């Protein structure tokens, strides 16, 4: 009897039982062994079935942007050391220490404040905040290159500014990276996906270090060469980041993707799949469609409905939410215990209300609209959208009857 063993789709062994013992025939060739080894080191277990379809494309562009960032980081570090007086006999070690402490302190404070004010938004618009982080990182490096030109009394201020920017980069970049890894992990293997991403990042960093040794010798010749190199690397860095974010095909709903879907649904009567929405998703500036702004998780105190309207809407939707059109906004108040399905439903009817121009009123869906919504949900599920999680920007504010 003969058996074969596959590893990630590649036959690596044949095992034969001939009655006299077990004979293992190693059929994997040298290049196959090397390929399997590299896949095992740098790709998640079970690739490609264990990750999303956009995994390899995203990692390709992400690795290139990481390489550009490493090289630009070398230019920035070279400028910082110059500004702190490395190689200057008049420079004070104590002064450099104070500058470094103030820089770190500014970064820690801004880290806390940014995480407090923007933490929930990082899940909602992961692509946008990922790009924001990298743009801000390039701005910080730009200031680093300018810092040696600043007078001593401004150098510390410049270092604090770059530290603030980098702390924002750390929060936005780290949180959005976690969201992206969660999207890529298809077999509850987020830890493995994150670990292999770290290995790919370190490999890119090692290559960047090797290239940096050559780069330092080149830029020391002329400041003009330094700025030309920085400009080229920055353009490439932003381009690679844009390509990386553009190739992500998120299957969860956020306000931008949901509005794109609803725009097409009410115009054409069918639902776009995640790939189609990804092609037109305006993740940089967000959706700029016609209609009022929709607020999810508004306070009942912001509404001024009549008692009869309030009673009618509580009877219609079992009090899971209240939709209220007011001036330039449509506000959704959520009841305690409401779930993601309720938010998706409420947003659907709020979108309809946002396209109309009329007086302030509570929105009560009729029977035909509810039936159309059920059909819409069936189409969404058929096209592959994940309706179990919907970061629609809701606050944690909930109402309850007393």
Structure description:
This protein is of the alpha+beta class and 402 residues long. It has helices at residues 30-42, 55-83, 93-118, 121-124, 126-146, 152-184, 190-219, 223-247, 255-268, 274-280, 307-316, 340-354, 367-382, and strands at residues 2-7, 10-17, 22-26, 293-296, 321-326, 329-334, 361-363. 60% of the residues lie in helices and 9% in strands.
* Helix/strand/pairing category: alpha+beta
Q: Helical residue percent? A: 55-70%
* SSE order, one letter for each helix or strand: EEEHHHHHHHHHHEHEEHEH
Q: Please tell me how large the radius of gyration is.
A: 27 Å
The beta-strand count equals 7
- Count the DSSP helices: 13
Distance between the termini: 74 Å
List the helices and strands and how they pair.
Elements: E1 2-7, E2 10-17, E3 22-26, H1 30-42, H2 55-83, H3 93-118, H4 121-124, H5 126-146, H6 152-184, H7 190-219, H8 223-247, H9 255-268, H10 274-280, E4 293-296, H11 307-316, E5 321-326, E6 329-334, H12 340-354, E7 361-363, H13 367-382
Parallel strand pairs: 4-6
Antiparallel strand pairs: 1-2, 2-3, 5-6, 5-7
Would you kindly provide a brief summary of this structure?
The protein has 402 residues and is an alpha+beta fold. Helix content is 60%, strand content 9%.
């Amino acid at each position: 009897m003969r058996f074969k063993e596959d590893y990630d789709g590649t036959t690596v062994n044949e095992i034969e039982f001939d009655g006299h013992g077990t004979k293992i025939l190693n059929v994997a060739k040298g290049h196959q062994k090397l390929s399997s080894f590299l896949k095992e080191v740098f790709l998640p277990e079970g690739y490609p079935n264990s990750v999303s379809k956009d995994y390899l494309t995203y990692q390709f562009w992400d690795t290139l942007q990481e390489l550009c960032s490493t090289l630009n980081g070398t230019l920035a570090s070279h400028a910082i050391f110059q500004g702190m007086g490395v190689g200057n006999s008049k420079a004070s070690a104590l002064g450099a220490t104070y500058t470094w402490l103030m820089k770190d302190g500014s970064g820690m404070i801004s880290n806390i404040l940014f995480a407090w004010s923007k933490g929930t938004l990082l899940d909602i618009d992961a692509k946008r905040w990922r790009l924001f982080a990298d743009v801000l990182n390039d701005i910080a490096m730009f200031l680093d290159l300018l810092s040696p030109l600043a007078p001593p009394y401004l150098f510390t201020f410049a270092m604090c500014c770059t530290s603030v920017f980098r702390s924002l980069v750390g929060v936005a970049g780290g949180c959005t990276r976690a969201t992206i890894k969660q999207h890529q992990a298809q077999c509850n293997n987020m830890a493995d996906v994150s670990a292999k991403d770290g290995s790919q990042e370190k490999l890119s960093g090692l290559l960047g270090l090797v290239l940096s040794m050559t780069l330092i010798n080149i830029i020391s010749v002329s400041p003009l060469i330094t700025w030309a190199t920085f400009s080229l690397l920055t353009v490439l860095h932003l381009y690679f980041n844009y390509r990386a974010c553009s190739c992500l095909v998120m299957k969860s709903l956020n306000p931008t993707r949901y509005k794109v879907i609803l725009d097409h649904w009410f115009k054409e009567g069918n639902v776009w799949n995640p790939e189609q929405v990804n092609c037109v998703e305006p993740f940089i500036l967000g959706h700029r469609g016609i209609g009022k702004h929709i607020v999810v998780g508004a306070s009942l105190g912001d509404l001024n409905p009549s008692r009869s309207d309030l009673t009618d809407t509580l009877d219609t939707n079992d009090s899971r939410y209240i939709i209220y059109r007011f001036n330039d906004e449509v506000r959704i108040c959520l009841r305690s215990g409401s779930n993601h399905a309720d938010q998706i439903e409420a947003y659907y009817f709020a979108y309809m209300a946002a396209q109309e121009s009329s007086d302030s009123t509570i929105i009560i869906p009729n029977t035909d609209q509810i039936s159309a919504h059920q059909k819409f949900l069936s189409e969404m599920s058929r096209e592959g959208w994940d309706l179990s999680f919907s970061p629609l920007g809701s606050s944690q504010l909930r109402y309850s009857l007393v």
